[in-house]
Amino acid sequence: MENFFKDVPEFPSFKEISIEDKPLFDEMFLRFPPLISEFTFTNLFIWRKTYSLRFTRLDSFLCLLGETEGVPFFFPPIGEGDLIKCFRKLMGFLKEIKEDPEILRVPEEMVKRIDRRCEGMKAELDRDQSDYVYLVKDLISLEGRRYHRKRNHIKQFKERYSYQYQPMTLEVVSECLRLEEEWCALRHCEAIPGLTNEFIAIKEALEHFEELRLEGGSILIGGKVEAFTLGEPLNSDTVVIHIEKANPAFEGIYAMINQLFLENHWSHFTYVNREQDLGEEGLRKAKESYFPHHMVHKYRVRLTDRKGGNDEEN
Known about the structure:
Blueprint lengths: L14 E2 L5 H10 L9 H6 L1 H4 L2 E5 L2 E8 L2 E4 L3 E2 L3 H13 L6 E6 H8 L5 E5 L5 E5 H6 L6 H13 L2 E5 L2 H18 L5 H15 L1 H4 L2 E7 L2 E12 L2 E9 L6 H13 L5 E3 L7 H8 L5 E3 L1 E6 L11
Parallel strand pairs: 12-13
Antiparallel strand pairs: 1-2, 2-3, 3-4, 3-5, 6-15, 7-15, 8-13, 8-14, 9-10, 10-11, 11-12
Helix pairs in contact: 8-9
């Protein structure tokens, strides 16, 4: 592991994420398979500007520092070793900057590992960030009464429109960018920070599509891309869908691209992680309408004492 980390700055020095760091993160995620949707290199890379992402090496852990609205936080550490000691050092670093230090997006599995032994810290469920996970076969077949409305949407789409499904290629990337720009104009993205940041992330994903080795799919109607989606493996049995955009003028197109992408690219996977709802009511309703198999819950870990997190005895 020492040689593996040789080019990573040692805590508390940090390095900004660049495309050249993909092999490092890919290897870490291969060694320590992630459950949370944030932990693919693609997600970290395309959102790096939004969160001002930087990383460092702390003992045998890879640690990511980010910001939301100028307030710093750490993602859960990646690696193996003394997790409690790592958490305390990260909290101590943050404590020098802010009153209430936090490690965010901590998966439930990691919380269970630290909960009983980590005095001075508390974990709180962050429901808005919890990932929705579905059975791939369910979202392809859409069988049973509960998927009746989804089947109807797809049936109506097929009856109304002459369409073509096409795997994502470099040749259609510019068309996908055109669709995203039109979608943003319709939603006034420039006035909504969350949508502005999403536009930047999608643009990064499309412009680095080949380097990131993403899989994608698109629906063409009248020779124009009217829907596209991007995803990749999260771990050995789960695919994660990073992006899904469509022209809302075509009723049923979201259900159609969702089904076609899984059927054409990911039918050999067991689960599909469709990320979080961010607390948005409409998005939550849409994700729940596909009946998740389970949720990957994430937590905020905070200090409950005033020691500053530098106690290494634990």
